[in-house]
UniProtKB/TrEMBL annotation:
It holds the Pfam family GATase_4. Transmembrane segments: none annotated. It comes from Streptomyces gilvifuscus. It comes from the Bacteria. Residues 2-279 form the Glutamine amidotransferase type-2 domain. Keywords: Glutamine amidotransferase. This is Class II glutamine amidotransferase.
């Protein structure tokens, strides 16, 4: 499987999240505590939004994140208020740059941890469900990227929660048709540059780990000496595959079968249920 981080809030250097925490994403690439694999070394990617640009930037590579000099260079010089980072452990598809997350289409970023079970058996039927106008945009061979284009086909740009619910429903319908008992396992993040949506769901009801950070004002009250908390505003929020450290009160588990929306104002948490996936 994989590990990922989504950050939204006060613009900061990417390195403040990717390298500096006690159990940073780079540390997780070697020593994951909650992932299926301890080591996640089959590629990495970062995607970030910058002011006054129409589309996010994406940097991806096939090597492990822990010793990549280009990642260090980018992370220590790029500042953003909304960014994604992902380290990959392949579930069977090739280790190649086009299979590394996050994936981008127009203003949208998408990254995923999980699997479509028996994906080779389901791949053809699912690929045929992608809008023909979008299909040429698919560059790699992963189930994660195909999920992205299925969601785009099913209305992601208009209503992300509904599109992801229909995407999940379509995968489950297709899987059951092929005799796959539990077709889908997913924790995923998607953003349009203004808002961030994070989902946790699996067909068997036992999803991969996912956490969100507590409110900054509450954490300041608990930990007045924590320097990072003095540097970021009240709107700052992280969603992570596993906690970045052991700061008491900092991390909350995303409930099973749910999704959250991070945006200026009040963040919200909702129940998630797949819907029939037909267009």
């Amino acid at each position: 499987m994989c590990r990922w981080i989504a950050y939204s809030g006060t613009p900061i250097l990417l390195s403040r999240v990717l390298f500096e925490p006690q159990h940073s994403l780079i540390d997780q690439s070697l020593h994951s505590r909650l992932g299926v694999e301890t080591t996640n070394g089959d590629g990495f990617g970062v995607g970030w939004y910058a002011e006054d640009l129409d589309t996010p930037a994406v940097v991806r590579d096939v090597g492990p994140a822990w010793n990549n000099r280009n990642l260090q260079e980018v992370a220590h010089h790029v500042r953003s208020g909304l960014f994604f980072a992902h380290i990959r452990a392949t579930t069977g598809t090739a280790v190649q740059q086009t299979n590394c997350h996050p994936f981008r289409w127009d203003r949208w970023l998408w990254m995923h941890n999980g699997v479509i079970n028996d994906f080779p058996r389901l791949r053809r039927d699912l690929a045929l469900a992608v809008d023909p106008a979008l299909y040429p945009e698919i560059e790699g061979s992963t189930d994660s990227e195909l999920m992205f284009y299925l969601a785009l086909t099913l209305g992601l740009t208009d209503d992300p929660p509904d599109a992801v619910a229909r995407m999940a429903g379509l995968i489950e319908e297709t899987g059951h048709k092929h005799g796959v008992r539990h077709p889908l396992q997913m924790t995923l993040a998607v953003s349009d540059g203004d808002r961030l949506w994070a989902f946790r769901y699996s067909s068997e009801g036992s999803s991969r780990s996912l956490y969100y950070s507590s409110r900054v004002d509450s954490l300041r009250a608990l930990h007045p000496d924590a320097a990072f908390l003095r540097e970021v505003g009240e709107e700052t929020r992280l969603v992570v595959s596993e906690p970045l450290g052991d700061l008491p009160g900092a991390w909350n588990e995303v409930p099973e079968s749910s999704y959250g929306i991070v945006h200026p104002g009040q963040d919200t948490l909702h129940a998630f249920q797949p819907r029939p996936g037909h267009r």
